[in-house]
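Suppose you are handed only these lines of text.
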Amino acid sequence: MSEDCIFCQIVAGEIPSRTVYETDDVLAFLDANPLAPGHTLVIPKAHHEHVQDMPNDLASDVFAAMQRLVDPIESAVDADGSTVAFNNGEAAGQEVPHTHGHVVPRFEDDGSRPIHSIFGERPDLDDDELDDIAATIADGAE
Ligand code: AMP
Ligand code: ZN
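From them, the structure of the protein bound to zinc ion can be written out as follows.
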């Protein structure tokens, strides 16, 4: 547990939450300031700041919980779809430094936009640059 972490405090029961799902390793609860009715956060109980900091098994457990919750969340609020996403790192808008997945119900006429809309102008990358980037990522993933 990280002492100053609000989500660790939720896991420890020191701060209340509207818990919707729990396993030994994962907790899911309603977002306190929801972007839509049913907006749910899914976290590892152990403190890890970023997605990539979690051990592989734990990352799988978090994603499995998110996947399991999508139908119940959408049904609970009669949603037509959902945005399933992580803000990963401060530069990406992560405010709580304990990794958490968002499941945000979406509705046909909700006026909200796809994840693409958070980005501005697209970078102009030529084929060589794309090849280099792909090769570098592939090396790093080995
Ligand atoms: P992010 O910007 O991805 O770090 O999102 C943090 C989310 O945590 C926001 O959507 C907040 O509304 C939510 N949040 C912050 N404090 C609490 C809390 N005590 N209980 C539930 N959700 C919270
Ligand atoms: Zn934490």
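What can we learn from it? The radius of gyration is 17 Å. The chain has a mean pLDDT of 97.
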